[in-house]
Amino acid sequence: MVGCWYRQNHNDGTAPAAPEHWCLQVSSNASMSSQHWWLVSMLLAAVTLLIALWLTVLGYWPILIAALLHLLLAGIGLRTAVTENRCSETICVEAEHISVVQQQRQRQRHWQQTAHWLRLELQQRSQRGIPALILHANGEQLELGRFLNEQEKATLLLQLWQRTQARVSARDQALCRRMAGAEIVSRPL
């Protein structure tokens, strides 16, 4: 999880009235840039084709067909990995509202609700055993940090709880203590 809380500055240099505007940028772990993925795929193609051409010259021509099929499947897999791994969420908390902007590939989804009836919940799900962090407000729900691991979701829940005064069940508080190694102690100031 990448991001930090920050205070929005006013143009006239004065501090905003409390409660302040806070935002958190959460993004997936994209360990390699698009240029690096392109370099890896070209290196893979060059090595595969060199070996396949050498074997073709020796008379094993069906290897060339298998190599081309391998390159096609590897290219599709690498492209899918790169595009699926580029996602982020921006969570902004204001005095009356909470807004979330989720971005994946070229799509962007905006979600905004009043912060009065906000509830955070960790729902257990069967997929990979990692609980889903669900934000409930005014009868709507939104999953946050779908790409985060268990400990990062617990940390995100703790940070959101401290900033929003949202309701968190005792079960989820215990789960957070176990996952993040931290404890929900008191409400924010």
Task: Describe the structure in your own words.
By secondary structure, the protein is of the alpha+beta class. It folds into two domains: 6-30 and 85-180, PH-domain like (Roll); 34-84, no CATH class. It has four helices and nine strands. It has helices spanning 34-57, 62-84, 150-164, 170-180, and strands at 6-7, 22-27, 87-93, 97-104, 107-114, 119-123, 132-137, 140-144, 167-168. It has a five-stranded antiparallel sheet, with no helix packed on it. A four-stranded mixed sheet has the order 8-7-6-9. A hairpin with a 2-residue loop joins strand 7 and strand 8. Helix 3 packs across helix 4. Residues 1-19 and 183-189 have low confidence and may be disordered.
